[in-house]
């Protein structure tokens, strides 16, 4: 999920009331728990009473100091008595400052008996029930998982990272105001195509030494559906595709028409006499309809063998069964084959 937070208590007392249950959706600032506050309310009242006593004492000492100031010029009061009256007043003022701090501390303890949601999200992992003793700075009372927006975590290989950086630099050079970070497209297990979008917002600065991959995080809005549920849930897996070019016309061939000869890929191309030729091609990314982009090696109007590749002989003509010729389709090149990602 995009965020998670633990709701804990800073005071030690008993649970008096639980306003929500696990699985409930909460808003930031919403009351979650109410703890027994009797002890802390009493401490607050005591601190306020102590302050009232000190305020009364201060008034008396201010009167004593005022009389001492009037008597001092005539010598009716010694310097020692005057200093004592002054010091007692200053001491009382310091005690008042301490008492105010104690009131503030007691008020904080009272406030801590009401636990509010620090973020929007869903309640999970509740550890208490009514009557349980809650200790200060102990086990978190509940965990809140934020699900809107939601994060998608991806690991991509070093070559793809370098391609993304190159494209970002080219976009920035061409248009300083352009969005240089590409969006990702993803689909869930029950989706037929890459219908969802997310924005990359973080990439680790270093590669993982063991796997040679880099961690990428993307953020996606997760509003409620018509039924009131969220479309994405924490822990889901998704197939990820990163769009790194604009749409363009490309030669597409069915994936099953490609053969492999050691490290190269090839197709069988038919000439005017239906004689097959093994043509080395440079394949591009695989599209979601199992059609493979051919970057080099094949022209638009050439015919290729689609089925029974193992029966093709270069010295024998092929008896073709023609299919409807389809125009080149606009495609957008992803970063490579579909990758897997995970929402958290």
Q: What's a quick, concise take on this entry?
A:
With 344 residues, this protein is of the alpha+beta class.
Could you walk me through the main structural features you see in this protein, from its secondary elements to its overall organization?
It is a single chain. By secondary structure, this protein is of the alpha+beta class. It has four domains: 68 residues, RNA polymerase II/Efflux pump adaptor protein, barrel-sandwich hybrid domain (OB fold (Dihydrolipoamide Acetyltransferase, E2P), Beta Barrel); 73 residues, Helix Hairpins; 97 residues, Beta Barrel (Elongation Factor Tu (Ef-tu), domain 3); 84 residues, Beta Barrel (conserved putative lor/sdh protein from methanococcus maripaludis s2 fold), CATH 2.40.420. Helices cover 24% and strands 32% of the residues. It contains three helices and 21 strands. The strands form four sheets. Strands 14, 15, 16, 17, 18, 19 and 20 form a seven-stranded antiparallel sheet that branches. It has a six-stranded antiparallel beta barrel with strand order 9-12-11-10-13-21. Strand 15 and strand 16 form a beta hairpin. It starts with a strand and ends with a strand. The C terminus is likely disordered.
